[in-house]
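User: Quick sanity check before I run a bigger batch. Here is a single chain. Can you write out its predicted 3D structure?
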Amino acid sequence: MSRLVFKAVGIGAVVGLLLITGYLVLQYGAGDQQPVEFQGQNLSIEVGELAGRDGNIAAILNQDGRAAVAVPGDSLDLSDYKVVELNFGVMPKDASIMLIWQPLGQSMTHVDVPWHGEQNLVVSMLAEKQWKGTPGILALMVNGSPGSRFELESVVLKPAQLWNHFGEVFSQWYGDNYWEHHSVNINTGVRSGYAKLLPLPAIMVLLVLSLLTYLLLLRKRQEFSVDWRIIGAIVFIHWLALDLIWQYQLGMRSLQTFDKLAGLAQEQKIAVTDDADYKSMAEAISTLDIKPEEKIILVGKDQFRGMRIAYFIYPENVYFRRNSARLSIVDKVLPGDLVITVGEPASRFNPRNSSLTLPEGDRLQVSPLADFDEQPLVRSGTVQVFRVR
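Assistant: Done. Predicted structure follows.
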């Protein structure tokens, strides 16, 4: 019995791998371009302070703990280069890294790059649908302690080979996959926004192939009695393989949460998360001498940022309507009310006549109060605060 089980699973796995290989090649291709290498002396510092250009390019992180290195990739088609190799020199121990790009005529996009102190880091962009076209902006953003120094030796863009596909799938299944907003409701086993092959459909394909192999082996032996114990064993093996992936990811994420937040008070926890910027922004808004009868109206289509900012402004009189950039959330906007535009670069303020025109056509007479930059290389706009006149 056990021999038949492992024979069916083994043959099913081999056939499944062949099918998956064909799928990956057809879906993502296998490039034949030559790698393009950008040495440190060919790079430039866009954010932070240039600290040296002796082979490597070196920068000092600014007072916000950020530095950005621009890569001159405006003559390339990103879709031809699905692998990015980063070669570092000195790096801050607490550094976090983002790869930022903006194809001509499109919005800016970024991905977080998992980094654990490696001098050489390979980043696969195979699953990034926006990684295509000629980049108007291609940059590496480093976040860390203000005043820290980091060095970048080179950036190499490489075409994807067949082994890159399997390496990417393995890293997505067993690599560092952090908690996301949807993690409270669903667990795909990978970062779903970047996944090129989810574990569940892959394991299901292997399961079906193993069951078909078992039936074919019975036919070859001229046996027509199905042993349900063998069926159960085949299903159990594949279920266990799938569950181990999920359990591994859950355990790794739990360890990451413990390492980052254990022993911290609530205020300290917020300070080390993405909510830190939203909270400091809301605290600054709350100091603007807001009277109880005055409303704070958030306008924008960026639901997540709008909801987070509104959360931290409460218990002030906040209005935010999801899925809308209009002011129809209130019956009337009165003088003295605050209007906060969230991630709306199309919002236009005309200083000549003090009018604010929003994307949906609403127009108000306002006075500007504050302008909060949110990583301008990453975010498509800023959070702006106006008082209605």
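The longest strand covers residues 149-158.

User: Great, the batch can go ahead then.
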